[in-house]
Each structure stands twice: as C-alpha cells, then as structure tokens.
Amino acid sequence: MAELVITGLHVDVETEHGPKEILKGVNLTIRTGEIHAIMGPNGSGKSTLAYAVAGHPKYMITSGSVMIDGVELTELSVDERAKAGLFLAMQYPVEVPGVSTSNFLRTAKTALDGEAPKVRTWPKVIASALETMELDPSFSGRSVNEGFSGGEKKRGEIVQLDVLNPKVAILDEIDSGLDIDAVRMVAEGINRYAAQGDRGVLLITHYTRILRYTEPTHVHVFVDGHVVASGGKELSEELEIDGYDKYLKAARS
Amino acid sequence: MSTNDQKFNSHLHPVPSWELADHAEPTGREEVWRFSPVKRFRDLITTGGAVTLPVRVTAPTEVVVRQVNPAEAVELAFDPPVDRVAAWAALEPEAVTVVEVPRKAELIEPITIEMTGDGSLARGHLLVSVGEQAVAKIILRHTGSGRIATKVELAAAQASRVDLVSVQDWDAGSVHGGQVSVKVGKDAQVRTIQATVGQGDVRLVERAEYDGPGGELNQLGMYFVRAGQHVEHRLFVDHVDPHTVSHVDYRGALQGKGAHSVWIGDVLIRKTALDIETYETNRNLVLTEGCQADSVPNLEIETGEIRGAGHSSSTGRFDDEQLFYLRSRGVPEEQARRLIVEGFFLDIIGRIQVPEIEARLVEALNHQLESIEGVARESLLSEES
Description:
The structure holds two protein chains of two kinds. Chain A is α/β, with parallel strands linked by helices. Chain A has helices at about 45-55, 80-85, 100-115, 120-130, 150-165, 180-195, 235-240, 245-250; strands spanning about 5-15, 20-30, 35-40, 60-70, 70, 85-90, 95-100, 145, 170, 200-205, 220-225, 225-230. In chain A, the strands form three sheets. A six-stranded mixed beta sheet of chain A has the order 6-9-10-3-11-12, sandwiched between helices. Chain A has a four-stranded antiparallel beta sheet with strand order 2-1-4-5. A two-stranded antiparallel ribbon of chain A has the order 7-8. Chain B has two domains: about 1-315, no CATH class; about 320-385, no CATH class.
C-alpha cells in the first residue's frame, strides 16, 4: 500500500515581517498506483507543499495532517519521513563535496532498510540505475551533484528514486530546465517507478510538457496556497490552451 | 632585482629583508599580527639562543641533497623574510638544507622531508628547487615538539609540475611560526597542500609569486583546531606576470573553547598581470560553541584586463540545505553531519595520493570528530577511500 493523505494543511514561512501563510488548507489524497499532477503558476505555493511535506526547516506546519499509510509525517523528523516511505526529488538538487553518490546512497539505503546493502551487488545496482538514465558509470564515484549539469542533476534524482524505491515520490519541477530528450527520459523513469503498481506519485510542475510522456490519473490546479480545481488529464489540456488566468482571476476576486 | 622592488608596493606587506634588525618586534597592534596571540610566539620573536631543527630528507637517487652555509642560502633564495620570525629562522647558524630536483627528472617516488622538533627552541631553513620540465612531489612533515621557526622555499622552474604537501603535525605545547614561499615558473604547474592537523599553535605566512607567464598555482589547505589552539595561515599571491592562474581553497574545522583559526587571503593583481585568473575561498566549519574563525579574503586589483578574479569566505555550522538533502533520503541527522564534514576534508585528502600521509590525515580527521555532539561517532567514508 502507498497512500498519501494531506488534510487541511496550513504552512507558514518565516519572513522579515514575521510568519507568512503560504499554504492555506491543502487537501489531497493519492491512492496506491495513482499519479497526481499539481499544476500552478509561479508563487502559488506548490513547491512549498513539497518541501513542507518533506520537513524542510524553513516551513512551519501550523495545522493539518500528512499521512503515509496511516503514519503521521508532521510529527517526524526529515529522515524519519523518508523512512516512512517518502521521497522528494528536488528542483535544485544540492551539491555535497567529497561524498560520492555511491557512498551517499549506500548510507541512505542502509538507514532505510535497517541493514547494509550487499557489498557484492551494490555497485551493480548503482551502475544499472545510472545506465538507465544514460549517466556515465563514473557518476557513482563522483561527489553528490557536484559539477553535474542541470540536466544531470535531474536525471540523478531519478537514479536515486530508482535505487531507494520509496512508497511515495514527490517530484518538484523535475522537468524544469530540461531539453525535450531529457524530459522524456525523466518521464520514462517516473513511469517505470509507477508501473510497479503499488507506489504513489505526486508530480509538481509548471508546464504541461512532461504530462505528454506520463499518464497522470489526476490533475490539480494549485493557486494561492490550495487546490482550486481537480480533474483528469483533460484539465492539463485545458491549461495548455487557456493558461492559469481564469484561476488567478477567481482567486483575486 | 626588479621583482623585489615591486614587492614593496602593497601596503599590507612589510618590506622583506634578511636582516633581523629590519623587522621590529611585533606588539600585536600591527595589521599583520593583529589576529595573532603574540605572547605565545614570544620565543620566536625575541630570538634567543636556539638549536638547528633537524631536517631529514629521503629522496630518489637523482635528487641532490646538500648543505650550504647561511650566506650561500641567501644567495640561492628568492624571497626574503617578511617578518621577524622568518628572518630569525633564516639566520640559521649551521647548515641550511638544499634539495634540488634536476631538470627533466620525473620522480615516481615522493621526496620526504622530515623536520622533527625535540622540545627545544629551534629553527630551520630549507630550500627546494625543481628544475625545468621536472615532475616531483614533495612531502614536508613537521612532527615532534618545540618552539620552532622555519623558512621554506620552493622554486618550480619552467614547465615543471610540482606538488608540495606540508603537514603540521606537532605535539601538544608546540609553537611553530614561519614563512613558506613558492615561485611558479613559466608554464609551471604547482599545487600546494597545507595540512595543519596536529596540536600547538601554528602561524604560517605563505607567499607565492610567478616567474614568467602561464604559471598555474593551486593551493589547498585544511586545518583542525581544538580548544585553546591558534592556527593561522596568511596567504599572499602576487600576480605580476600575464596569463597566470591561482586557485586557493582552504577548509577548517574548529571545536572547543578558545579554538581560533585565522585565514588571510591576499591576492595582488599588478598592472602587468594581464589575462590572469584567480579565485580564493575559505570555509570554516564550526563544530561547537566557543570557537572563533577569522577569515579575511582580500583582492587588490591594479588592472581590469583579466580573465577573472573572485573570492568567497564562509564560517558557520552545518549547511541546512545539505543536511536537508541528505536527510530527505533517509540518512539520520548525525550521520548526515558526519558525511558532510568527512566529505568536506576527504575531498582534499584524496588528492594527496600518498597513502601514508592520507592515512595520517584521516586519523586526524576522525580524532577531530570523535566526540562532537550531533555528529555520528562512526566514520562513514574514510574506511573505503
């Protein structure tokens, strides 16, 4: 089972003028096997949703609940949330000098599984995940994200998704800054992950492009810190033509 | 001696001179001494009677190792002392050690130079030169204890490729001050790694100059500072020649009450230094409360006709974004910190490529991290690197 249930989520961010509310009551249920796309204009708070759910210290959850398979995430630390099955592919993956990708993922895998992966097969696991994303085997020994191009970082996030295989994956603008071939490759990675059948995907994006290569079961429009419309893939097609204007006007009035 | 005349230009740097009398005893109010605990370096300043610091050289057969007298050493040297400690170190009463790598020699094994303190007040003067097109790696190890003043020079001739690894690994209670000067020949590639990882107080003035266009200098540094310890690296890179490159990257970790590090990074880009590139960075990881890291990058630019010049400096606790990233993959917080700090230093240690030295630095790193609150005790990376 892999069910992510977000209920009445309110989130503040600290500013110079005190706390500012970014998320204003988010309700969202992603059931096992579903791919949800959240689409919204810049500044709508969709990335905040991703980071708040993952437990970034910059965001304060003031009320509401986030559960994976009945486990309340908001009471857990960042790494405990990962252990509960959550994964966040970040828009800007962070560089960690001197820590090789292989060592990092082995440390993560050990923490998630409670035992170290087998020494003999581990390099093959990494090599195969890299190969699938068309990254050179040398990335295994290179420092985490250091010196990677923008596209390599995004593909690296999918490599991690593949290797760590969480219950629920949130992908924050995984398609931004990618050329069309890379978008397709990343989308295929998401499809492979989802095809296991017992996972959940929350795909956060500004553009409809990546949705051409994935099959979202649900599409949500996110404006002003909450979901304002939900539907199927047809909703993304409507956004492709009309943009967010209609929703932004409604939010302002 | 036109380059020496030019040396006088920069207001941050005292007039170099071999004469002890030209260097007044510092009081601590001078710009170049204001971060230093002058009292602790007193014995190196008041310049009492001293013994010669034993210098033991282990080198491949093609390397010439000889002794010269102080007057000959002054003739061979290129960079006069810029402070009293170095001037006194160079007033070596006995023999000065000279190490010469012949031109075109390509050394496979490193040259190891041991400077070992026996607890006394001691001084040492060392001159290393690497001939044209030669390739050499030089390991300079400072061990033992004492109050030690050193003056060290490395001259890398045209098109040579040289690594200088200097490890300050003193025992408790030691005091070490001195000057290390590097000259980068035309089209030469020089890399220096300064690792101050032992105990005691250390204050090093590190100077670099070029001898012709096209020289490349990479300076890496790492230092571990513990309670009550003072570790100071004062760098000066003097870009006179065009098309020269300097990259400086020093990293420190501090812990314990009164741990104090100082990093000064001065880069002077003279009018003649066209099309040069320079970047310097200093990062300090403050592992506990009560430490102080002073970090002062400084660029003096006399021409805008350059490829690039920049610097950065940061001092603080762990980077929140790195911690969040690692933890979001399930790595527990204490292990995430351990990964970050080990990676931070192994990144430099791994470039030395001398197993024995790398092992010692990893050991020092593990020692520095052994009982830090919030940092996992078990090493996560160093075992297999």
